[in-house]
What we know:
Blueprint (H helix, E strand, L loop, with lengths): L15 E14 L3 E8 L2 E8 L12 H11 L6 E10 L8 E12 L13 H6 L1 H4 L3 H23 L3 E2 L5 E2 L11 E4 L3 E5 L4 H9 L4 E9 L12 E10 L4 H31 L12 E3 H10 L13 H15 L3 E5 L21 E6 L2 E8 L4 H10 L8 H5 L8 E7 H8 L21
Parallel strand pairs: 3-5, 6-10, 12-13
Antiparallel strand pairs: 1-2, 1-4, 2-3, 4-5, 7-9, 8-9, 10-11, 11-16, 13-14, 14-15, 15-16
Helix pairs in contact: 4-6, 7-8
Amino acid sequence: MSERVLVKQLQAREDGPVSVSGWVETVRDQKKVQFVILRDESGAVQLVNPATRPAEDGSEQDAAALALTESISGLATGTFLTVTGELKHDERVKLGGVEIKVGALEVASPALPETPIAADSGLDKRMDWRFLDLRQRRNALIFRVSTTLEHAMRQYWIDRDYVEIHTPKLMSSPSESNAELFSLEYFGDQTAYLAQSPQHYKQMAQAAGFGRIFEIGDVFRADPSFTSRHATEFTSVDAEISWIDSHEDVAAMQEELLATAIAAVKEKHGAEIEELFGVEVVVPTLPFPRIPLAEARDIVKARGHETQRTDGDLEPEGERQVSAHVEETFGHQFVFVTDYHPEIRPFYHMRDEESGLTKSYDLLFKGVEITTGAQREHRIDVLERQAVEKGLDLNGLEHYLDFFRYGVPPHGGFGMGLARVLMLLLGESSIREVTFLFRGPTRLAP
C-alpha cells in the first residue's frame, strides 16, 4: 500500500502519484465524469474520474474502467475508503486548488445509503448520532480548539514549575457538600461517591508541599438541571497554589493563564473560527476588571433587573447584566465578581477578618460564570468551626481535616468548566455542542 497522505499536505506536494484515505462527503455522478468529495481529519479534496458507461450498442468496454465507474456510482455518503491516483494542481478547482484523478479505490467500510441525521436535524437527534455529527468540519474544529486550549494551559503551568496530578474520582465522603452526589455500592456494605470536585486532593497536595499543582479531569454532579450550561459529567480545569496573600494571587494567575491560552487559540485557529462560527477570538487584556458582589447587585438593579434570589447571589440574568455593563464600560469580555457572603460559599473559603466576607471570586465570561476561585482556610480550628456552621458532620470530613493537623501553607485555587469556556469562546448556545459526548439527567447514551 502506498503511504497515506493527509489532504492538508496535498498543496505542498508535486503533481504525481498519491494515496489518500477518508470518508465520502458527496458524490456527483454525471454522464461523462464523476466527482467525489473525500474528507479526512485534515480537510477535503476533490476526486475526479472520467466515467465509463456500458455501450448502448453492446460493444466491449474497458472492464477495469467500467468497474471503477460502477464502484463510484455505488458509493454512499460516509463510506470510508482509500484512493490512489494522480495529483494535479489546478487553480480552477475551488476546493484547495488540487484534485486527484482516481486510479483505483479500495472501500474499507461501506455506509448505509440513508443517513439518520441531516443538516437541519435537532440537537437531540444529532446527539443520538454524535459520531456522524462530528464528521462536519465545523464540529470537528471544536475539539482541535479544545486541544490547543488545554495544551496552552498545560504549557503555561509547566513553564512555571507546576505539578500535574490526577485525583481519585471515587471518594468515601463528599468533596463539596452532601447535595449533588452520585453514590454507588462499593464492595459489600461500603458506599462510594463520584467526585464532585478534586478540591480535597488539590489541598492535600498543598499539605504535601507540592507548592503549585493543576489537574484537567472529569467531575460529576447529580444536579437535575436542564440548562444550556449544566451537565452531570464534565471536564474541570483546576489549579491550586501555596504561599498566597489573598484570592487576588489566584485571580492574577488565572487571568494570565486564560490570556495565554486564548492567544494560542487565536493564532492557530482564529481565521477558521471566524469562517465557520462567525466569531472573532478576542485575546483579553490584563488585568480583568474586578467588581465586588454588592456593587454588582447595584449594577443589575440600575439596569432594570430585580433579582429573585434570597441569598444575594447573582442569577443568570444578573450575570449577563453585569457582563454587559463591563463590556460597555471597559470593553472587556471577562469580569471577576468578588467578596461573596459566607452563606453562599463552601465552608473551606477563607473569610476576611474585617468584613466577614469570603476571599473568593466568580469569573464571568460573556455573561456566564466559568469559575469559582478563593483563598482556602488553612487554620484547622477555623476550618472546623466553619464546617459545623454549614451543618457538616466533622466525622465525615475526618480524612480531609487531617491534612490541616500537620501544617499547611496559606493557599488557594480555582475550578473552571472547560465546556463553558469553549461554548462562549465559539459563540455556541449550549455546552452540549462542545462536549464530545454529553451527559445530563436524560442522556446516558451513546
